[in-house]
Structure formats: C-alpha cells, structure tokens
Specification:
160 residues; mainly beta; Immunoglobulin-like; four-stranded antiparallel beta sheet; three-stranded antiparallel beta sheet; 7 strands; elongated
Amino acid sequence: MTRRVSIFDSPFLLGFDEFERMVDRVSRNASDSYPPYNIEQIGDDKLCISIAVAGFTMDDLSVQMEQNQLVVRGRRQTEEEDDRIYLHRGIATRQFQRAFMLSDDIEVKGAHMDNGLLHIELKRLIPETMVRTIQIEDKGTDENTKKSDKTIDVESVETK
C-alpha cells in the first residue's frame, strides 16, 4: 500500500486534516465544467457567484449550505419538449450539481435569477483581531519553596 505525500504532513501543520480533505474534494470537482460559472469580487468584502442556468426555472434549482460547502443543484421538473425535433441541440439542460467550498468567514447573503443566470451573493465577515496572553505557570517547584514575589535572593559579600 502506498501512502500519498502531502504538504500537510509537516509537524508544524497540526489539525489541518479537514483542510486537506477539502483541497482533495475541490481538485476532483475542478474537471467538471457544466454549468459554466463566474466568481466576481464586488467591493472589499463581497463576492458574487454567477452560474449559467439557461432553460432552468427557479423551481428546477436548489441552493443549499452543507457544512462549509455551498451546493447548487439543477434538475428539470418537466420535459415539455418531447414533440420537438432538434436539428442541433447545443443548449444543455441536463441535471447538475456544482459545489463551492466556503471558508468559515464567508456568509451566503442571498440568491436571485436574472436573464438565465443564477447569482449567489456572498459576504466575507471581517473577524476582530484578538491577542491573547497565555499565563506561564511554574510546575517544577512545590508550594512550600515557591516565592510569591518571584525574586532571587543574593547575599552581599564584602571584599577588602
């Protein structure tokens, strides 16, 4: 059995197992190109994902958050085109699932459809920067010999 080497195997990167799984999931989904989409940055803290969903109605689409994953699904409810004869069919209306991994500081604000595009609005939450001081305790000495004011006693010696 061979083991895959990862940059997350470093002893300095502790607790990044979930992040590694997320990178693997994203790399597997990168090869799927249907439906096409854009990701735009609108301002300093806003993003918009636009997905081309021509031929789908709002009832055919669902947008859900599953843990940190934004999942967009499309499935045609009705097939009214059974009596049509196509000479060329270039507009795809097959079912799809498109997933986007969102970091913890991204919040989905809403979604709307406009001219065959599904727009999903995202906002980046700006976290407050916090500095926390960790108290260092002295566990090496017992309570009887511990000095409360943490000073060192020095005997003065007179030299002649």
